[in-house]
Amino acid sequence: MDVLDVIKGLGFYKKCDLAMSVFDWVRNRDDFELVLNCSVVAVVISMLGKEGKVSAAASLLNNLRKDGFDLDVYAYTSLITAYASNGRYRDAVMLFKKMEEEGCKPNLRTYNVILNVYGKMGMPWSKIYGLVEGMKSAGVTPDDYTYNTLISCCRRGSLHEEAAQAFEEMKLAGFSPDKVTYNALVDVYGKSRRPKEAIEVLKEMELNGFTPSIVTYNSLISAYARDGLLKEAMELKNQMVDKVIKPDVFTYTTLISGFEKSGKVESAMKVFEEMRALGCKPNICTFNALIKMHGNRGKFTEMMKIFEEIKSCNLSPDIVTWNTLLAVFGQNGMDSEVSGVFKEMKRAGFVPERDTFNTLISAYSRCGSFEQAMSIYRRMLEAGITPDLSSYNAVLAALARGGLWEQSEKVFAEMNDHRCKPNELTYCSLLHVYANGKEIDRMQDLAEEIYSGVTEPVPVLLKTLVLVNSKCDLLMETERAFFELRKKGSPDVSTLNAMIAIYGRRQMVAKANEIMNLMNESGITPSLTTYNSLMYMYSRSENFQRSEEMLQEILGKGLKPDIISYNTVIYAFCRNGRIREASRIFSEMKDSGLVPDVITYNTFVSSYAADSMFEEAIEVVQYMIKNACKRNQNTYNSIIDGYCKHNRRADAVTFVSSLHELDPNVTKEEKCRLSERIFNKWK
Fold it and tell me: What is the structure's pLDDT at 509?
């Protein structure tokens, strides 16, 4: 008892080294077995764990085991707790299994610690609930901490139904929910995009005498912000202030992220300015949100300034920072930057965990490196990391980009086999894969299932239905989804862009302008995609000169036009016989640093050939060859069609027969195809 009290006392005064000296002195005595028991060992291991000396604690336990010391559940549980507190979750689980194998029965504390670890690791719900069932079978009765932890475990997978079931079980077991319970349940509903249910929990919480804290309000604000209901989120922030609850860095960061996601950049920056004006210091999560905001809009200079500001605020990039950079470069198709960031991340000492692997899968698939994305998935499995909902969703998103619907259905089946419950993002990927795979009937069948309740048509699903239907040029279906979305919440920049795109393709100018007005009224900043769709619409209309005016607007707003922007304006002028203006835009395009592509050149070739200016058309082809721009079938089709249009069949035949002189790389197959085209045009 003296040894135990001395070590406890030294631990209380944070004299860890001195406590270890006492422990070693006792252990080296001949009669150490009389005074050294498992309670002392448990206290020492706990002390080392709190000091972050987990390896020393593990070494101590292993040495005692080798010396034949009879370890009990308290000693094991202390090391499991030390592992868990220091983020070494896999080691905690391995020790738990070893403990059971050695016949040492876990107690309530052991189970509670491991349950928390399972939640942190994002284990499938079947394993989490299986642990609780195993606990009951072993005769260990769950306590209120067990149920609170079980509800918290539902956050990661948005398992609101399972959380509600655990909440009811808790009450049936005779435990009264406390503030921790209610806050955890509010958070689960928030992450499940169910703000109404979250508000109901808040009402019950207040009814039972628990005052909502900043944690409660932050979870509610997160629930509304995730669903794009930013007006409601701001109202909740104002409620906090009215109740003398000061918004913290989490409150502001959640709002910044919500506005960023909805494309409301100005509103996001206003929140950031308010935050700083009130003396609330940004944390790494705030900087991560700003990095994402600038990166998603292609403003990489501003993004990297924010990255540098992290250091000036005495903060260090965390795993989310690196994952955000990977995601931003990935979605912009910058695969070399993705690889570079990944190397820097490892050099900074970060070991890739599940979230990093998930981000890399998404990043490489966005870059079009599908094989590399799947290679990362295999590496993740080889590292012994169990896929979670985010992993499956990342793989499904990668498959969706390639339209590989059959493989997607296999992954979806695998998810169900592993009892990993699909969420709205899963169904979003299935909609995308059917759209990209041209499986319109399957896409429409799934859409009808969504409308009829296979999964609640939450805003994110309705947004996806707008996107995929617009992409497939299904006007009625797009408008239906958009109408439903407006009833549920506010459309974001991507859905409004989809509406402008489908109206633009159909020359529905009035409808496109209605969407632009809605965008302005909602405070959403138009993106380059918005302008490109409008330019496309005007380039095919009588008011084609408006497309160049919009190009100047883009430049005036500080946005950088891309190759699509310039190609659209060049097409507008060429289509209307204004070659001189088209050539001027071509020069401006090159001056901006963009390299013309085959579409740019083909537009000029087609325009010249249509006006019987074949010498100029051939000069453009020569320029393409000189600048190593690979020709495609449309390049020569335009010239053949021009000859045929002007009844110059002999010239068309001569052109094909001597084509190898113009283009030494032209194949025999291509010449045969063009000869056949002449024949078919003349039939």
Answer: 94
Residue 162 neighbours by CB distance under 10 Å: 19
* Residues 526, 458: Cα–Cα separation, whole Å: 24
C-alpha distances out from residue 356 to 154, 360, 616, Å: 21, 6, 52
pLDDT 10s digits, 10-49 = 766 677 777 777 767 777 666 666 666 667 777 777 887 7
Burial class (CB in 10 A: 0-12, 13-18, 19+), 439: middle
User: What is d(CA 388, CA 372) in angstroms, rounded to the nearest whole number?
Assistant: 20
Task: Report yes or no on whether pTM surpasses 0.70.
Answer: no
CA gap 56, 44 in Å, rounded: 10
Tokens linked to 60:
């101590």
Torsion of CA 243, 248, 253, 254, to 10 degrees: -40
The CA distance from 348 to 92, in Å, is 25
Whole-angstrom distance, CA of residue 149 vs CA of residue 642? 73
How far apart, in whole angstroms, are the C-alpha atoms of residue 640 and residue 113? Answer: 75
Residues 6+ apart with CB under 8 A from 101: none
pLDDT in the model for residue 28 = 66
**What is the residue-averaged pLDDT of the chain?**
87
Q: Check: CB of residue 154 under 8 Å from CB of residue 163.
A: yes
Distance separating alpha carbons of residues 426 and 628, to the nearest angstrom: 42
In sign, the C-alpha dihedral spanning 247, 249, 251, 256 is: positive
Q: Which of 202, 194, 254, 196 has the alpha carbon at shortest distance from 225? A: 254
Mind giving me the DSSP string for 519-535?
A: HHHTTPPP-HHHHHHHH
Closest by CA to 589, choosing from 562, 616, 571, 607, is 562
pLDDT tens column, 598-648: 999 999 999 999 999 999 999 999 999 998 899 999 999 999 999 998 889
Tell me the Ramachandran region of residue 431: left when phi exceeds 0, alpha when psi lies from -120 to 50, beta otherwise: alpha
Q: How confident is the model at residue 552 (pLDDT cuts 50, 70, 90)?
A: very high
> Residue 453 in contact with residue 445, Cβ under 8 Å?
no
| Token pair listed for 550 | 């919009």
pLDDT at 1: 62
> Among candidates 300, 274, 224, 293, which has minimal Cα distance to 493?
293
pLDDT in tens, 76-87: 898 899 889 888
DSSP 318-364: -HHHHHHHHHHHHHTT-HHHHHHHHHHHHHTTPPP-HHHHHHHHHHH
**Cα–Cα distance between 260 and 265 in angstroms, integer?**
6
Distance (Å, rounded) from C-alpha 329 to C-alpha 571?
A: 30
Q: Could you report the per-residue pLDDT of 373-432, keeping only the tens digit for each? A: 888 888 888 888 878 888 888 889 888 988 889 989 998 998 887 777 888 889 999 999
Distance CA(272)–CA(249), nearest Å, equals: 10
| Residue 166 confidence (pLDDT) | 93
CA-wise closest residue to 338 among 311, 368, 312: 368
Give the 3-state secondary structure of 46-88: HHHHHCCCHHHHHHHHHHHHHCCCCCCHHHHHHHHHHHHHCCC
% residues pLDDT > 70 (the chain): 96
CA angle 376, 381, 386 (to 5 degrees): 120
